[in-house]
Design brief:
The chain has 29 helices and 30 strands. By secondary structure, it is α+β, with helices and mostly antiparallel strands.
């Protein structure tokens, strides 16, 4: 009873305290509103700003409001503020933070709305100054006195990074993890780190725990004990959303981490990244100082006297499970045992800085700087050095990056002159910037502006900014053209002798009507009633792009071609991609060819792989091939139809028509077989834009893929799978492959629950069952295609990205090498060497396998014995000869070929794979951004207006 009464008494006390706090808050709010209403008109008149700047002003007022707290009153501060709160933390912006200068006090006559605080004047629309305990200096928006910026000691806002020795020691002992740092674009306070082998990403919640890491950094993190993990969003109970849990609780969290005790996190409004002075963040005794804790931890790791927190990772494991399990596996087991909890952590160090740091695009906020300069002209004339110590803020267009400060002295001369001339339009220009520094003493990174792209409302500046933001090279190739032969060029005679001559074979290309870089062609021969020989012929780009040449280095840097609807940024010079290497009709071209003998069930009976010479007889578009499949094009109608391709060489139209129809039937069999094996396909309509003569979109339509698209796709998939199989068996540690992990099971189960809620049965047990379920849903919603497109969009959310990897990295985990979407154990990219650098690497590896096979047959004397007969191919054939590859002759042949074709070591290949993954993702971001830009232009042109109010959308057409 005593315990029960104690709890009841405590509840009463808490309830009374809460009632008292509520009454105090009501009084403060009413005072703020009255002060704001009396001053708002005069403020707006004094500033005379446009609607856009007023929106920025409101954000600043929200910041000021959030910083009006009891601690401020304890310091003797009484600042009027607007009681206006953003909906979420991501809405907080510092875009209208006033410009300040070093070693200068704000003039007392700033405007008639200024108030005097501690002998200094601040405008009511200025962010609230903060005084630190024991100091008479004023701090504005977390900025320290500017004379201290110039070199005096300051307290640290962030924990210092661990030294490399401590980081390596923690990684080796499994007490820290290396991970890619990703920021939530909708809430910058939330960042996530993916640890290999752990199905759930680790949440890094708040700017202080993120410790100056930015999007794309490779960081080392420490995972919190289980007791500190947050609840998954959408789970029952109160969600520990980062938009609610603020950095102001950081001191308690750090103390909990250091002392293995945790009393719980308070839930506060996310009005500001440095809000609520109750935590003491940026204030007095509670000043965030993890320095001592972090330094002690790091020193302990270096000296070997560390208190391991790995025991926290043992929590929740069953007896006997700890032995032989590494930290990542323990963490994976814990996340599976507690599926409703998300692991949390903090950043200890940044081991590799993101390339995005050097590709920031944003807007300068200069209107308040102009106001300040106008009011302080006299002081500026007296001291010419003031101008060099002033700064303006830069707001990145990417919401994943924080607001930055830019010193006026570091601005380009042309921009600095416009500032001096009072050119307000500079705020409307997109600027390129780079992050130069982010010290532990500053809440914001320091950036340097390099140049301007132009007005943000125009297409060209926007596209150039998108390319810059994603580090996409769009310049010409003057430095590398010397690596290519001059035109006109003919295939050297020795190539005809060493390659198989296929110029008498009916070979043709099927591609988009606007394509000029033709890197794949097809052929088919009927062997008997139920068997066919299908050929895929890929441009032999590796013949021209030799390892470690200037052309190779440039191709690797670009890594992929980027397609922006109206503009293509090629990976290779047009001389190569559209001429020398392109499989243009009517000319001899070098190729890699694969032939398969297939039966009527789509089973591969035999295959041949080698380097060839081909001559395409025809360039078909997808629409041409589709018309042939549908019977629109036949021999009689061909001569009467305009716009159809010209035939070259000895072949007639009937040969092409017969080949296309035959390939179509075979592709349907291969597709059915692939789906029966468990492949998944998420198809949705694509928006296609119609452009005017100036390249501006004026209309759009939905487009779906045709049978001709699927025809080409099936044979390209077969070629890629074959290449992956051959190179991975011949070079098990040096093959560049592509994997697609299983989907995020938590998100997949959420999607399953969503479908079940609306009576749509979904089986997620495998990729094949998932596909079949979606097919049934499509049939059920055949009268509502829009709803089905929405469901397909939701179905793609749990899917993870496919990535390149080095086979040697996963040789002990072969189950992780597979491709979930295609349901195949091995896959790579081989069929697009003119636009993807990984394909060139695969071509070199395949060329080395072919060369090694020839060397082995010569050394073994098999070529002499079987002269004039077809020799069994042990390295590239349908059956791989392990004994031959493991024999001394086989090893020597593979080693010589690998050296000749420049096959990278596993370590170098892993770096190539990681870089290509990054570039592929950047190209996708750029392509998506351009599509959104064109949609914005189209909607603006059609005068579609959006009125957005919370979740209410009004469309006025």
């Amino acid at each position: 009873m005593r315990g029960g009464s104690g709890v009841a008494e405590q509840a009463v006390i808490v309830e009374r305290l809460e009632d008292t706090d509520k009454e105090k808050k009501k009084k403060r709010r009413s005072n703020r509103r009255s002060k704001h209403n009396s001053a708002s008109n005069s403020v707006n008149e004094a500033r005379g700003e446009s609607f856009d700047s007023l929106k920025n002003e409101e954000k600043t007022k929200s910041l000021t409001s959030s910083m009006s707290c009891p601690s401020s009153k304890q310091q003797g501060l009484e600042i009027a503020s607007n009681e206006q709160t953003p909906d979420r933390a991501s809405d907080v912006a510092f875009s209208s933070m006033p410009t300040m200068h070093i070693n200068e006090q704000v003039g007392s006559g700033f405007d008639d709305t200024a108030v005097d605080v501690g002998g200094r004047s601040f405008s009511k629309w200025c962010p609230e100054p903060i005084a630190y305990a024991g100091s008479s200096k004023m701090y504005i928006d977390g900025f320290l006195p500017f004379h201290q910026v110039e070199g005096f000691a300051r307290k640290k806002l962030f924990a210092p990074y661990w030294p490399i020795e401590a980081v390596n020691d923690a990684l080796e002992k499994g007490e820290a993890f290396k991970a890619l740092f990703r920021v939530n674009a909708h809430n910058r306070l939330e960042a996530y780190c993916k640890i290999d082998g752990v199905p759930t990403d680790v949440l890094i919640n708040g700017v202080f725990l993120q410790n100056r890491a930015v999007e794309g950094d490779i960081v080392v993190i420490k995972v919190d004990p289980l007791g500190l993990w947050t609840k998954m969003k959408g789970s029952n109970g109160s969600s520990n959303n980062s938009a609610q849990v603020e950095d102001c609780n950081l001191v308690q969290e750090v103390n909990g981490l250091a002392g293995n005790s945790y009393k719980g996190k308070g839930k506060l409004h996310a009005d500001c990244e440095y809000a609520d002075c109750r935590s003491g963040v940026l204030l007095g005794k509670g000043f965030y100082d993890e320095t001592q804790v972090t330094r002690t931890e790091a020193n302990n790791h270096v000296n070997g006297h560390h208190q391991s927190n790995s025991d926290s990772l043992h929590m929740g494991l069953f007896p006997g499970q700890n032995e032989g399990i590494n930290s990542a596996d323990r963490l994976a087991v814990m996340t599976s045992q507690f599926p409703l909890k998300r692991p949390t952590g903090r950043v200890l160090a940044i081991v590799k800085k993101s390339l995005r740091r050097d590709a920031i695009v944003g807007f300068l906020n200069v209107k308040q700087w102009f106001s300040y300069r106008e009011l302080n002209t006299k002081d500026a004339k007296k001291n010419s050095a003031i101008f060099d110590r002033e700064y303006v803020t830069l707001t990145p267009t990417d919401p994943r990056f924080p607001t930055m400060i830019v010193f006026v002295r570091d601005l380009p001369d042309c921009i600095k002159k416009r500032l001096e001339d009072g050119d307000v339009t500079i705020e409307m220009e997109l600027l390129a910037a780079q992050i130069e520094d982010w010290s532990a003493e500053s809440p914001f990174p320091q950036a340097r502006v390099s140049h301007s792209f132009g007005r943000s409302g125009l297409l060209e500046p926007q596209i150039n900014a998108i390319l810059y933001q994603n580090a996409i090279h769009s310049t010409d190739f003057p430095q590398v053209l010397s690596c290519l032969p001059n035109i006109p060029w003919e295939i050297p005679p020795e190539e005809y002798q060493t390659r198989k001559d296929l110029r008498d074979l009916c070979v043709f290309t099927i591609d988009s009507s606007t394509a000029h870089d033709l890197d794949d062609a097809l052929s088919v021969e009927k062997l008997s009633k139920d068997s066919f020989r299908v050929g895929v012929h890929i441009a032999d780009v590796s013949y021209f792009v030799l390892p470690n040449t200037a052309l190779d280095i440039e191709a690797e840097i670009r890594s992929t071609s980027v397609y922006l609807l109206q503009r293509k940024i090629p990976m290779l010079p047009s001389l190569l991609s559209e001429n020398l290497g392109s499989l243009n009709p009517g000319v001899d071209r070098l190729a890699f060819s694969m032939f398969w003998e297939l039966n009527s069930m789509g089973e591969v009976l035999d295959r041949w792989i080698g380097r060839t010479v081909i001559r395409s007889c025809c360039k078909l578009s997808y629409q041409h091939a589709q018309d042939i499949i549908q019977g629109i094009i036949d021999v009689e109608k061909f001569n009467t139809l305009e716009g159809y391709p010209q035939l070259n060489g000895q072949f007639e139209l009937k040969d092409v028509i017969r080949s296309v129809k035959c390939l179509h039937e075979i592709s349907k069999t291969l597709k059915e077989k692939r789906f029966n094996d468990g492949a998944l396909q998420l198809e949705s309509s694509k928006v296609v834009y119609v452009f005017d003569e100036d390249g501006v979109p004026y209309d759009s339509r939905l487009s779906e893929r045709m049978d001709s698209n699927f025809l080409v796709e099936e044979f390209m998939l077969l070629a890629n799978r074959t290449a992956a199989e051959v190179i991975s068996k011949a070079f098990p540690n040096n093959a560049l492959l592509r994997r697609h992990p299983e989907p995020n099971m938590r998100k997949l189960k959420e999607f399953e629950a969503f479908c079940c809620k609306y009576g749509l049965a979904l089986d997620i047990s495998s990729s094949g069952q998932f596909r079949q379920s979606l097919e049934k849903i499509q049939e059920k919603l055949k009268d509502d295609s829009v709803l089905f497109d929405i469901i397909i969009s939701y179905a793609s959310k749990p899917m993870q990205l496919a990535t390149y990897f080095c086979s040697g990295d996963l040789k002990d985990n072969l189950n992780d090498c597979g491709h979930y979407g295609l349901a195949v154990p091995l896959y790579t990219h081989f069929t697009s060497p003119l636009r993807r650098y990984p394909d060139i690497v695969v071509h070199r590896t395949l060329a080395a396998v072919i060369e090694a096979e020839e060397l082995y047959l010569q050394q073994s004397g098999l070529l002499k014995v079987n002269k004039g007969k077809e020799v069994s191919r042990g390295f590239t054939g349908i059956y791989f000869d392990k004994e031959a590859a493991a024999s001394p002759q086989g090893k020597e042949a593979l080693s010589i070929a690998a050296l000749k074709y420049g096959i990278p070591s596993p370590e170098l290949l892993a770096d190539v794979a990681a870089y290509c993954n990054e570039r592929k993702l950047a190209s996708r971001y750029a392509e998506d951004a351009c599509e959104k830009l064109y949609m914005w232009v189209l909607l603006k042109k059609k005068e579609v207006f959006f009125l957005v109010s919370h979740s209410f959308y009004l469309f006025v057409l």
